[in-house]
Design a protein that fits this description.
By secondary structure, the chain is α/β, with parallel strands linked by helices. It is built from 17 helices and 25 strands. Strand 1, helix 3 and strand 2 form a beta-alpha-beta unit.
Length: 657
């Protein structure tokens, strides 16, 4: 029976934030592998999100993580209720949950025994075996509206803590939020150990008192039990397909998605918001990389904003749907809540999702359209124009190759786009073709005279200072510089198109390994000498690479480039059955059978027919694995870090006109 993965249960928006900690590269996998995680709390959606973020490690690296949620149970029950995760994402209750409507007083007292309520991963464990215990508490959750309900909740939480403290585990983490700081002064960003602003004689501080009482109970219990602990206080959490406490981000996003009108009071008071992506990553970061017995704040990247600023972000990205009317509001009517997150960042945490990106994701998820998600504001709205220019490039190359009988194929992301999207990957900003060495050499013989006069063939021999091993075709009087090439403005940095050769490599594993190592070293010397950077990747030969890194400055560039070219062509005139991507970004993937590029078939690409390998399925699987799975929603920006862009006279170019 085929093992189920998270993508079998979650939609693409949920999968995006569930996998965020794994993608972040901030979490040491060794400290997650094999861990048993126990989740305690009364927020079904939040509990599920945290559970899936740990379960994602099992999909990515077979980490053997076990995740369960628990709820207090009657001590007379001997066998815990255990439910395997199914496609139905409902029915999770947890510690301290009230019975009845919000604000009602019929809250059920909590028992002192923890009972498994749901199992999110294959292996079941007893609560007392947990390595990590995470209490969601009242983090971004509505607090009971009555005195009796509040007191009952605190009593329930105290009894839950008694049960939790009876478990000897590695760490206990309480999730809290910024309401604990009360109502700070204007533009005051509260740090972890600052008391916040409290006025016992004024109304509106009830949430603060409750959150402080909750944290106080937690600290008293952990210290009395001698348990290592952390508290993570979040900004206002939001996320696609995540039911949390309502706030301005949710309200304005929902109304924008539905094209409804909103009235806002003009205010300068800002609040700290945080995407669920960064909350889930911060939870795992605190548990695995931060010291015991600390309190941390977390908010998102560029995510401090007033309601007015949120409205402007929405209007900027959804001008047809965002209908907001601003009205004057007297000063002092509202207090913002800003969090100072310097402490967590000092330990190495890096938030990834900006408030603007998070808003775009949230609105588009609420619109529930069937189209593929993409950030429409990519490259200042010029991405589709860039793709039209690249399509024009493709048609020129196709014309030249047909005229001279040169075999070529769509390559890399262009090939993937042709198969998966029948055109460009919606967020792709470049295009590539690949050829066998003999076809590449023939193309280079005729390219410059066949291409239009406005296109420059950029190779080391045609431009001093360029040291790319492959060919770039660039359009004159345009600018499309990456973060790297933008450092060399004396070079031609026009809109580019890559032409690459796939070269032969040895028939035997040992010869392929030596050839790969030679190619990698020679390319590293050229590239890092060119960019004046260090050779960082040592692989299984770190000392040798360190030596080459120091020696690269003693090697003349012409000799380094000769060695690079010699490595690429070493097997050129030999009879071998394997190829490798010596020029491209897939060098480390090693070799693949030459037979995969024996024959071409034509497929639709943006309404035109272009050649792809007949064995494209094998080739794309070698290149990308499960290539039909799209990259996460929040990463659907372009593949190059373009720092300078000027389309010149091609800003309105449309292929075919």
């Amino acid at each position: 029976m085929e093992k189920k993965m998270l993508r079998d249960f979650l939609n693409e928006f949920e999968l995006d934030w569930a996998q965020a900690p794994v993608r972040s590269e901030l979490i040491p996998a060794g400290k997650i592998k094999g861990k048993k995680v126990l989740l305690v709390g009364g927020q079904e959606a939040f509990i599920r999100a945290v559970a899936w973020s740990f379960a994602a490690w099992n999909d990515s690296c077979r980490a053997g993580v076990c995740v369960e949620s628990v709820c207090p149970a009657d001590t007379e029950k001997s066998d815990p209720v255990r439910k395997q995760m199914t496609g139905i994402r409902a029915g999770v209750s947890a510690a301290g949950e009230t019975v009845g409507g919000e604000g009602e007083e019929n809250t059920v007292p909590v028992k002192t025994k923890l009972e498994v309520n749901q199992v999110y991963t294959g292996e079941i464990f007893a609560p007392e075996e947990a390595d990590f215990i995470i209490l969601t508490g009242y983090c971004c959750r509505e607090i009971p509206g009555t005195v009796s309900g509040t007191i009952c909740e605190l009593q329930n939480f105290a009894k839950t803590l008694d049960a939790v403290m009876s478990i000897s585990c590695a760490r206990v983490l309480l999730l809290s939020d910024g309401r604990v700081y009360g109502k700070p002064d204007h533009a005051f960003a509260a740090s972890e150990y600052e008391a916040g602003k409290t006025d016992p004689c004024a109304l509106g501080y009830e949430d603060q008192y409750f959150m402080q009482a909750l944290e106080g109970l937690f600290l008293s219990a952990t210290r009395a039990a001698g348990r290592p602990y952390e508290i993570l206080r979040t900004g206002r959490i939001y996320g696609a397909y995540l039911e949390m406490m309502e706030h301005s981000v949710y309200t304005l996003a929902q109304r924008t998605a539905g094209g409804q009108e909103s009235k806002l009071g003009l205010s300068a008071e800002q609040n700290s918001y945080v995407s669920i992506h960064d909350v889930l990553t911060a939870i795992q970061f605190v548990l695995t990389k931060c010291p015991d017995n600390k309190i941390f704040n977390v908010s998102g990247l560029d995510s401090d904003a007033s309601d007015s600023e949120i409205a402007m972000m929405l209007y900027r990205n959804f001008p047809e749907q965002c209908k907001v009317t601003m009205e004057w509001r007297a000063s002092g009517d509202e207090t913002g809540l800003l969090l100072n997150t310097q402490l967590l960042c000092r330990y190495g945490f890096i938030p990834r999702v900006t408030l603007e990106d998070g808003l775009i994701i949230l609105v588009k998820s609420l619109q529930d359209t069937e189209g593929i998600f993409i950030f429409d504001n990519t490259y200042m709205g010029k991405l589709t124009r860039v793709q039209q220019i690249l399509l024009g490039y493709l048609l020129e190359i196709d014309r030249i190759c047909k005229k001279h009988g040169i075999k070529y194929f769509l390559a890399g992301g262009t090939l993937l786009g042709a198969i998966r999207h029948h055109g460009f990957i919606p967020w792709d900003d470049d295009a590539d073709v690949m050829m066998l060495r003999e076809d590449f050499d023939r193309f280079m013989e005729v390219a410059q005279q066949e291409l239009p006069d406005n296109i420059f063939v950029q190779i080391p021999s045609t431009e001093k200072g360029n040291h790319n091993p492959f060919t770039k075709l660039r359009i004159n009087n345009t600018m499309f510089a990456t973060e790297f090439t933008g450092r060399f403005l004396n070079m031609h940095n026009g809109i580019f198109f890559d032409v690459l050769s796939h070269d032969q490599t040895g028939n035997h594993r040992w010869s392929q390994k030596l050839h790969l190592m030679w190619t990698m070293l020679s390319r590293s010397v050229v590239f890092n000498k060119w960019g004046n950077t260090n050779i960082k990747s040592g692989g299984s030969h770190p000392l040798f690479c360190k030596f080459v890194d120091k020696a690269k400055y003693l090697i003349p560039m012409p000799f380094a480039e000769w060695m690079q070219e010699r490595a690429l062509r070493f097997f050129q005139n030999r009879k071998t059955d394997y190829l490798y991507d010596g020029m491209g970004r897939n060098l480390k993937r090693g070799s693949f059978p030459k037979a995969w590029l024996d024959e071409a078939v034509y497929v639709d690409f943006e309404g035109y027919q272009f050649p792809v390998p007949k064995e494209y399925d094998k080739y794309l699987t070698w290149l990308y694995g499960d290539y039909m799975q799209m990259i996460p929603v929040s990463q659907r920006r372009t593949s190059h870090s373009i720092v300078l862009m000027d389309l010149g006279e091609y800003s309105g170019y449309k292929c075919g006109e």
